[in-house]
Amino acid sequence: MSSDTVDMPSLEVVGEEQQVVIQQEQQEEQQEESIAFPIFVKTPTEIGTIQVQVTPNDTILDIQSFLYETAETCLYTSYGFFFNGVRLNEYSELESIEGFGPNSTLDMNPVDYNERSAKLHVERLKEVMAHGVGDFPNEKSPTMFSYFSYPEKSVIPTEDEDNTTNNTESTDSAQNEGTTATTEAKAEENKEQKETTTTTQSGENKEEADKKKSNKQQKKPNNNTKQNKGNNKKEKEEDKEKLTPAQKARKEEITEIKAFEKPLLSNYFPSNPSPQVQCVRQMIYSGWSPVPASRQLHGDLFYLDITLLEGSHICVTASVNGFFINQSTQANFNPAASNKATTAFTLHELLTQVSRQFRRGLGQILTNVSQRHAFEMQPSVIPVNSWVSRPKNNRFDLHKATQSVLSILDPDIRCQPRDWNEELQTLRELPKSTVQERIIRDRAFAKVNSDFVEAAIRGAKAVVGKSMQPINPMEPERSHMFLYNNIFFSFPLDTRDLYTECGGDAAARASANNDLRGIHLFNLADVEGLHTLATAIIDYKGQRVIAQSLVPGILSNEKTSNIYYGSMDNGKTIKADPEFHERLLKASTLLHLSEQTVVPEEGEAVKLCTSFETKGIIGTDGRRYVLDLVRATPRDPNYAELKDQMCVLRPELIATYAEYNRISWIAKRQAEKKEKGEAATEESQEKPPALALNPNLYSTVKLGDGAEQQEKDIQALTAVGTFLKGIIIPKLIEDLILFNITPVDGQTLTATMHTRGINMRYLGSIAKSEAATKFPFIHDLFFNEMITRAAKHIFNATVRDSQPSELAFTIAHFMNCFLGTETGSINKEEKSKRFKHIKSKAVHELTQQGLWEQIAQSVKAKFDYDIITHSVPMESRLIVLRSLCLKVGIQVLAKDYDFTTDLPFTQDEIVDLQPVVKHLNPRSGDGLDLLEAGKSLFNQKKYDVATEFLNESLAIYHQVHGPIHSDTANVYSNLAMLAFYNEDYDLAIDHEKNALVITEKTLGIDHHDTVHAYANLAIFCRSAGRFTEALGYLKHALYLTDLLGGEYNPERSSTYTAVSALLEDSNKLALSLEFLNQALKHQEFLFGPSHLSSANTYHLMSYTYAKMNDFKESIEQEKKAYHIFEKELGPEHQRTQDSGAFLSSLTQTAVQIVKFKQARLQQMQFEQFQKEQQQAKRAAAAAAKLEKKAPSGDGSVNEILSYINGPKLSGSRPAVKVISKNNVKPTTTTTTTTTATKSSTKSSTTQKPTTTTTAPKSTSTKQSQTTSSPSSTKPNKKSK
């Protein structure tokens, strides 16, 4: 447990010891871990040689797995690897191959087919072709990453460009576009250089050199930015013009964020950008199969009937040498090759030769596959249930029907079933002294566990569906046991009345969870000579089934039924074999369990170091097995009544308490020595007392130790309970109040509480705390989880009692009673019609009022909490729907449900009921240690060393689990953060994309960690200048946050702030302000109007208003921010001073703008006055001329008429001359006067910017400059 979960005393010695341990681990790993190197694989395809990055510990099988998921080689299944002409074994490690090293070449040569490999080849081709007609690239473990990704090239400014940007931030927009285009072109060139050095490329070994060269070029300043602005801008515009209308619509769909709107469940799934592609009409196994004996001698394996898209029908023979078209028809059997003699080693090559449409369709599918992320095509080890689904169209496929017939569960397996127990125990006995030995051991454990869980799910479905005969058919149905594929299945029911006083079947069901947790703890202890069983719990259709591997001889040998340790009859007789006791004592010491004496009802007192229910059995293989570990941890002293026998403490709490005691004891000893004046020695011989708890306290067995010892045991256990209620739970509440942790749903809340060692039965006590009453978010979160857990048990009981043909109606009816609103619009006649054909009594008796009464009783009994309102809050009903579906395996259609009606659900909207699985989930201890050490170094800002540790952890996880595992995603996420802090944004984006795809596959496409991954990826893309790509990711994160995060989810405000920052970068300032207002609304509701988060939002709003030239509103918002900073942090705090400086800058800018407007107005008035004067002068001059030319009073009549009518003009030239002559001198005079006036105005206004007399365009530019000029007042990009 990490120490941040409790209030532990600070101790410098512990930190020094931790540093020593980390350095020792680092030295050990550097010696034992190998460095990756490139090799080349010569393929039989037209792509030639492929470069692959490997480590010496990789096996040939690992390389095969990589090529199996590569688009160029995914259809080649039957081949072998040869080195220097010798075929290599699939399980050979590269370091064991003589002469093999960096830059070595493996030859990928075809090998003959057999019936199994040929059928696997056909299935692989059908699987790839199914990608063309499916919604997701991998239906069993889907990911939606590609649907929200609009990749871009990075635009990372250099140091010179940063300085230029700071000095000319508010210059003309065209100039900014030119700079951006320049950096984008440069980044595109660097990106292309990086892309030529992937681990799967063909060519020379220049990966490291090219990458270093690319990084240097990327960081090198560009001195030709101004020269290339115009060209880059034109290239950018040309690139935009290359988008087709469909591509433009796709881009808008992914990245366009419109006005703030309520998310809809019907928009859960995006539209598929790729049209459905079909390669063949039909491909089935031919009716001429199986192959006659005579044709087997010719190498025939089976026959295929294929109908091409062109309409022709062919019959294909699969032989040991490949595939060819024979002459058979549906009426005649002729296995001879066709006259065209068309043959190929692979089936897709054969079909490519005879069908142009197949070639075109398969090429399109492989192109689409190659454009997706590499991890999208890889399946997860254990599929994750999805609670919402698209409408599923059942396509007509005879091949699928044939496969379903072949997969009928047969209890009498035709082939030899796997001996799961022998595999598991053999692996447990493998050496584990070195890191590499542990990697091999852990990898085998993970593989066997995943295969076991897959087989257990199939068997559990058969057991619940009653497709399997029990091994004890004469016993009552509750006691039936089943055996399938060497896996033992049973129902956790109280068939022997052992749990009558503590809940009966409900307690037996809870004991299965405790047993699984106990097995996991003993596996972590890993004591030599102690063996546990492979175990999985499957909840399906209301039934809980336990699947376990078989103890050798337990079903056929009476000797193995004997108990050598513990009790078989609930404490009447108890045994304690000395050798068993010795081995169990080692495990108990690690689990903080004490050795104590118990007295059976019959016989003498014995010493045990586990609970008396734990059983020790010796199998026929001579191994010692530990069973029924229902109390591997002690009872919860806060629930000490007899009815709470299954209430045990979590192991995380015990580990935290032990560490708390150790640190407190050391701190106390140091304080005592300091008081006595003694020097604190570095290595003290004294050791803190070990924590040892009695696992049999508060049980039905009689304790044999004296009253004094029993009192000590009770005090020790009570101290743990006090520690839980007095420190751990208050610390959780404090973190919830301060929003240090923000669980948003039942999944994250459960993980948070379990990590801190808090059982879910404490939900009620936390919900009743004062903090929950003050913060509605906390109250709603805990309330929703309590009622969902109560509804889960009622749902399982209802489904168990219903008919198999009525499951869809039963589920819909239960959901209507649970989440619908009783309006009284449905009368009795309509209700009777709905239930007319329903036979299940439990469904008839289920009503909304009755269901909520049962929920209230269950919540009171389990959590000691009284429900006041018997309904789910309207704004939380979709969240509760998701939580219940994930808990019981329901899958519903993605549509908008109206929860204000009586019947929001119909039976047609219930898509599936999936099994919910719990299993041991083995993890790599070495990888986990390196991961935690890397995190610790990261927090200490030792980025280089942390990167080394995380890369080593990643290498181990890849070898143990493969890429698709939650621990691998965790490492990738931390590596992305390290790269981000090192300002290597491209690398951070690549790592975060890997983490995102893995998280979607292992946790779910709408899990809280998935939403976080999308948000982090958007931040990284924004830092790299990929604004459009960042908008796509953040848009999806915003949708999931609003859809599933609750009305006032604390993470909504941060998401809104991130969206507003991106919108501001895209110059959508009005929409950015809208999201800032939404963020402010949530912050004020959660934290109050005077919280620092609100001050930050006010500051961002002020900055945005300033960019919009609305300085009045900008000053108003910054004043609010300043007052909050001054109140909460004080006037001397740096943030308060920064806010004050920014406010002062805004005020000065506003004053200058007012003065400028006044001066401009005066100048316009003066210019108008000058214009009027000029017009008056011109009029006076014209009048003077006319007065000179006027005739005298004694002139003739003709002269007077001539003067009145004007001169006779033969053309326009004389008139033009007159106008030109009259206007030249006045215009020159006016211009000179205006210029002089401007000069005098400029010299007299000293505080006014130098550009106040320029054009309005540059004036507004200068205003923006003045607003953002102080570097201390500009908001940090990361804080946005």
Automatic annotation (TrEMBL):
Keyword Membrane assigned: no
Keywords: Cytoplasm, RNA-binding
UniProt GO molecular function: mRNA binding
Location of the Clu domain: 390-640
One Pfam family this sequence matches: CLU_N
InterPro entries on file: CLU-central, CLU_dom, CLU_N, CLU_prot, GSKIP_dom, GSKIP_dom_sf, TPR-like_helical_dom_sf, TPR_rpt
Superkingdom in the source lineage: Eukaryota
GO biological process: intracellular distribution of mitochondria; mitochondrion organization
Biased composition (Basic and acidic residues): 185-195, 232-252
Compartment(s): Cytoplasm
Gene3D superfamilies assigned: Hypothetical protein (hspc210), Tetratricopeptide repeat domain
GO cellular component: cytoplasm
Low complexity biased stretches: 164-184, 220-230, 1225-1274
Region (Disordered): 156-252, 1205-1280
Function comment: mRNA-binding protein involved in proper cytoplasmic distribution of mitochondria.
Family: Belongs to the CLU family.
PANTHER family: CLUSTERED MITOCHONDRIA PROTEIN HOMOLOG, EUKARYOTIC TRANSLATION INITIATION FACTOR 3 SUBUNIT EIF-3
Record-linked HAMAP family: CLU (MF_03013)
Protein's UniProt name: Clustered mitochondria protein homolog
